Structure formats: structure tokens, C-alpha cells
Amino acid sequence: MEILGIDIGFGFTKATDGRNSLIFKSVIGEATDLQFHEPLYGGPVVGEHLQVEVDGKGYFIGELAERQSNVRFFTLDQAQFISDFARNLALAAAASMVKSHIPINLVSGLPIGYYKQYKDELARLLQGKHDVVLVDAEGNRHQKTININRVRILPQPFGSLFNFMLNDQGEVGERRLPKEKVGIIDVGFRTSDYTISDRMRYSERGSRTTDSGIARAFNVIAKKLREKSNVSVELYRLYEAVERGNIKIRGQEYDLKGLTEQVFGQLASTVASEVDRLWVDDWDIDTMILTGGGGAVLARHLQPLIKGHLMPVDATRDARLFNVQGYWKFGKHLWARGVMEEEKAAG
Questions:
Q1: How far apart, in whole angstroms, are the C-alpha atoms of residue 238 and residue 234?
Q2: Same domain assignment for residues 133 and 184
């Protein structure tokens, strides 16, 4: 039995089995027949080759779709994401990480605001046996049966709490957090999630999902680029450009540093205002955790604006993995010993 954590995000899909981790853009493209597979000039292939066939249809996933597909699919709509994207992205991750036919117990998550509406549907889509063909960079086909035995869906930000609280055996390693009132600020690509764990009890009053994700800032950057270049740059193609500080469009280079600083500062102010408004009655929060890929990006702008004790953000760790690592640790907590009754495992 394999325990797998998968975080299916609007921006990136992340997965871990506790030994290895995988991150790829949540972009799906139609697979095409590649005439040439070898790297040019003997160098390494840049980026991952993630190609799958699900239900008889071939897909390029992530960077491969961005680089090779004529038709690409990317969405920021939650209903469409669940119905058309989540299963294929999750199966692409699972097929890349686990062997065929091995029973998998899977933990995943949803934003707070969509949890109640979509948790049962997501679990239904993921659970069961799925026949997947994984096609490697040389064009070799590997038939796999992905056998997802159990699925547990968590409110997304609690993944990061479990990541900080549990060790790799799924046992409590950080004994302070379970005894405290903890506020979690999870800034993702499409959404920002806010929730409170009051001595490990969920607070509905202190929990909300808003649209204040990094995509809001990227939309402003894309709009400015369209005004200057007459080219509409897809949001998922801005990650590297924003990190680098510039983008080249049809031979002309555009500096993004000043604009990025401005829009990230504005987004950080929005997030801080949402924290103040949402947690106005929760002045007794002991610790706040800033997490998510967007949280790491905004940390420098956001930290001076947050009132209260904010856990230091470790720049050496990839904050995009915090939730999925917590999912896996929670799975270890539930299932590692293999003796927990079915009803108890289902919560």
C-alpha cells in the first residue's frame, strides 16, 4: 500500500510519496506525434516530459503542453477545474510516481470556500481503478493501472498545518501548534485561503476563500504587456518572466521589475486587509502561518503588514509543497500502521 499526497492547484499540481516530489503546471494540451525526440546538440532535455493517455485520449501535461501542444487548456473556474482538469492532472502525477496495480491511499485538498460543494465529487473522480498509459520522452509506452483505494479530502490550508506539526512517521513532532490558536494564510495562484485551527478545532468564523491569488497580479501584468505589445500572454507563461524580471516578445524585451513590485505590493495590502477584517474577533491568535507558492512570493511585502506573530518564512524551502507534504504526513497518520478501521479512516 502506497500513501500519496496530491495537491491539484490552479497554477501547479504537486505530488509526494514521502521520498520524491513532483511539481508541474496545471496545463493540459492535446498530444501530438513528435517526429523528433532527441535533445539538440547532445544537451539535456529542458523541463519534464509528462505525456499520458487517459480513457484512450492522449494529453501533454505541464511544460510539455506549453511547449508542444497546438491546443492548450487552462482554467481559473473551479467547477470546470473539477470536471475537466482534476482527474487527469491527478492521474498524471500518480502514474509518474507509483507502480502499476499497487493500492494507493490518497490525500488531497480543496480551498475552504469550495470544500463542502466539491469534496465528494473530487473523491468520486479519484477513487477506483484507472487505466493510464505513460509515454516517456523516447516515445515508449508504459501501461499502468492506478488503483486508488481510499481518498481523503482536506480543507486545503490544513495541509500546511499538518506539515509543520507532524513528522515523517505521521506523529506529532511539533507539540506547540496543537495547543495553540493558529491562523493559516494560504496564498495560491487563483485563491487565497484563510482558516483558523483553535487547538485543532476548525473555526468557521475565521475561514474564507477569496480571489486574492497571484493570478490577480499576473492579470495586471498581462494587461500592461498587451497594451505595449498587442500580444496576450497566457498567465501560466508569466511565472519565469516575473521571476527573471523581464520578458521578450517578438524580439523586444520588456522590463517587469518595477511593475511586479507595484502589483505584488498592492496584492499584499489586499491580503493583509482581508486578514484584519476576517480575524477582527480573533485577536487571541497565537501564531500565524504564511504558506503557498503565492505566500512565498508575497512574503517580503506581506510580513511588515501582518499584525501578530507570523512564523518566519524559510526561503530555502519550496512553499508550493507545504500543503502536499502535509497531506502525505496526514495520510501516514491515518493509514501507515494499516490497522485503522474503515469508518475511522474515513473520519
A1: 7
A2: no
Backbone angles phi, psi at 108, to 5 degrees: -140, -175
Summarize the chain as % helix, strand, coil (round to 5). Answer: 40, 30, 30
Cα(295)–Cα(333) distance, integer angstroms: 26
Q: Note whether residue 70 is domain-resident.
A: yes
Total domains in the chain come to: 2
pLDDT given for residue 39 in this prediction: 57
Which residues span the domain enclosing 97? 2-155+325-345
How far CA 249 is from CA of 66, 218, 222, 245, in Å, comes to: 16, 16, 12, 14
Counting Cα atoms < 13 Å in the Cβ hemisphere of 217 gives: 30
Which residues neighbour 120 within 8 Å (Cβ) at sequence distance 6 or greater? none
Question: Does 239 lie in the same domain as 121?
Answer: no
d(Cα 137, Cα 224) in Å, to the nearest integer? 37
DSSP state letter for 187: E
**Which residue ranges of the chain lie beneath pLDDT 70?**
35-47, 337-347
Is residue 320 situated within a structural domain?
no
Do residues 188 and 296 both lie within one domain?
Answer: yes
100 burial type by CB count under 10 A (0-12 exposed, 13-18 middle, 19+ buried): middle
- CATH number of the domain within which 274 lies: 3.30.420.40
CB contact at 8 A, 133 and 33: no
* Residue 319 falls inside a structural domain: no
Residues 89 and 128 grouped into a single domain:
yes
**DSSP per residue, 57-74:** EEEEETHHHHHH-SSEE-
pLDDT for 247-285, tens place per residue?
999 999 999 999 999 999 999 999 999 999 999 999 999
Global pTM?
A: 0.91
Transcribe 241-267 into DSSP letters. Answer: HHHHTEEEETTEEEE-HHHHHHHHHHH
| Residues 141 and 168 both lie in one domain | no
Residue type, 27: V
Both 36 and 112 in a single domain? yes
Residues 64, 131: one domain? Answer: yes
Q: Give the Cα separation of 160 and 185 in Å (integer).
A: 10
